[in-house]
Every structure is written in structure tokens, then in C-alpha cells.
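Incident log, structure service

09:12 report received: a user says their structure output differs between two submissions of the same chain.
09:20 pulled the input from the user's history:
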Amino acid sequence: GAPTVKIFGEEIAVRCKRRAIGGYSAHADQPKLLEWVRHMRDSLRSAFIIQGEAEASDALAQKIRDELAVKAIIPKAGEAYDII
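09:34 re-ran on a clean worker, output below:
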């Protein structure tokens, strides 16, 4: 991605990373996804769950919160988040 973004006319350094995982199911592959998050949890502020059926996504987000103590968010369309 871009090293900076312009917000209200000001250049802001991008200090986040986006990771996309293809081919996983929030339900069937939940143990693998939890293990993936577990390896990164010390450097994570939040995990955004943006794919999958609502029930499976809710369950995955709750396990990330409960088992890994990572803030897990399932954003709704049009919502904005401060990731700085």
C-alpha cells in the first residue's frame, strides 16, 4: 500500500498492515485462524473480521477476544474506525 495518505489536506504516514487470508472458513478453519492470530497477538491492536457468515464470524471474534485477549471487531458497512 501507500506509505502515506492525505487526510484533510495533511500527509499522514501509514503505520498499519493489512493481511488477507484466502480459502479459510471462519467456522471450519477456526482453529487454524486462531493459531494464525496467536502468533501475531503481541503486535496486534485489533483484528477485523470482514468475511464469512454472521454466526461463524461472531464465534471467531469471540474466541479471539476470550482466548487471545485481542480486540476483535466485525465492522458494519459504512462504519469508520480510528486505527492510529
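09:41 both user submissions now match this output. Likely a transient worker issue. Closing.
09:42 reviewer note: Residues 43 and 67 are 16 Å apart (CA to CA). The mean pLDDT is 85.
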